Amino acid sequence: MGRPIPSDIEIAVKAKKKPIMEIAERLGINGDEVELFGKYKAKISLDLMKRLEKAPDGKLILVTAVTPTPAGEGKTTNSIGLADALSRLGKKAMVALREPSLGPNFGIKGGAAGGGYSQVVPMEDINLHFTGDIHAVTYAHNLLAAMLDNHIHQGNELNIDPRKIMFRRVIDLNDRALRFVVCGLGGPKNGVPRETGFDISVASEIMAILCLALDLMDLKERLGRIVVGYTYDDRPVTAADLEAQGAMAVLMKDALKPNLVQTLENNPAFIHGGPFANIAHGCNSIVATKMALKLADYVVTEAGFGADLGAEKFFNLKCRYGGLKPDGVVIVASIRALKFHGGVSRENLTQENLSALKKGFENLQKHLENIQKFGLPAVVAINRFPEDTKKEMDCLYELCSQAEVPAAVSEVWEKGGEGGLELAEKLLGILDKEKEDFKPLYPLELPIKEKIEIIAREIYGADEVEYSPGALNQIEKFEKLGYGNLPVCMAKTQYSLSDDPGKIGRPRGFSINVREVRLSAGAGFIVPVTGDIMTMPGLPKKPAACRIDIDENGIIKGLF
Q: Which residues participate in catalysis according to the annotation?
């Protein structure tokens, strides 16, 4: 555990990458199905799915985690390391992950390309503009917003009530000053003044649509179903009413194609799409996942934040729309994170504390119980840090044994695929066993409130759900408009199983408070909003942007 490790960007820059055509050929992808973006990244034509339509699917493994803490869990890093470890065991494996957002890169969170010796490369490209997918989402979204305001300015034939417009604009940066704005100022020539605001691009419904669409025509149809607002007599107005979906689909046509890159160990990786899991479904695209399943025998993918958010939505939304049947789940946990959930302050996490570890294990235990409700086997990945003591490691192994779940230490950050061999072997062990049939948590025919309450009770452990009067009115309105059969996508803090970020561990005896309910008709889900969720982050006092630089040779520094 002792050797010093360079920064993520230093490791990535020194990586011995192979030409992406070589990676594609190893997967069996033909040259005319590859659209190169330089030497080390490419888009893959959707025609590949037609050619491989009858090919068998590989096994699908979801990587999720305990409830996030400032101590870190390492979900993306372990996803990449696990795929590398499976490849070292002679398996044809690949990883399918989400694209990073520029906002967090220059804010506080950093990138989403893994870390240490378990990364996807070219890391600096992936964490910056990549192949332009998020820009396409931004422009398609803002085109619709511009056409909406133009329609009102040009006479408002659809009778849209400017006070009932919910569709905001987006930008892929953290900018709190844009959360609430007034547009249309400056006199009659500049439009109709109204209050609006900006969300971060990855929070756009169009990003969710990109990730849930099955093909180009499904994408266009979903874009047309976006509800932008309501008329004076309360009828929904859609993008199709504004005749915008065709032009939006043109902007999105290339973004729908999965992006092929590689890991540090030259194994294939799809990096494609990805909304936040605290406000949307938090998974990479269905197209990329399904394509990967045709190309590899083992596909490792991830879902955002803890299993109460990303995994629940992966199962109830992505798997339902994509017809996917996962085969197994990896839950990532660190001893530091579990001690945090056991009540230890961040400053004292390096000190041995078995009692806090046992208390914090209750959080992991709840996530394990939740995975079992979907009929899936799981293995715990113990993301090891240098200060973890032998007594703590033995204690966590024993707790997992008592919970009847296999556990394996993971050292992929330091050792790459070699550090994930134990985890890969334990995973293969659970995949070989007989298991129950995978099933979503609820049928779509249930009323909206009932679906919300099933998630709150079964996944979060809440006693009840409380609704604001406005939320109740919105639910009634959506059901009357025919949207009652849509699945539910909860917007909730990622820092707690409850809707209160201060309630760590496994809280009990609490209520979930739904303050409003939103409609994402194009993506195909209802969004109950709980707590203080924001769709436009702000920058911290010292943004990561202050550390990012470039030298005279074009070498980027400070990106992580």
A: 75, 77, 98, 109, 277, 305, 385, 413
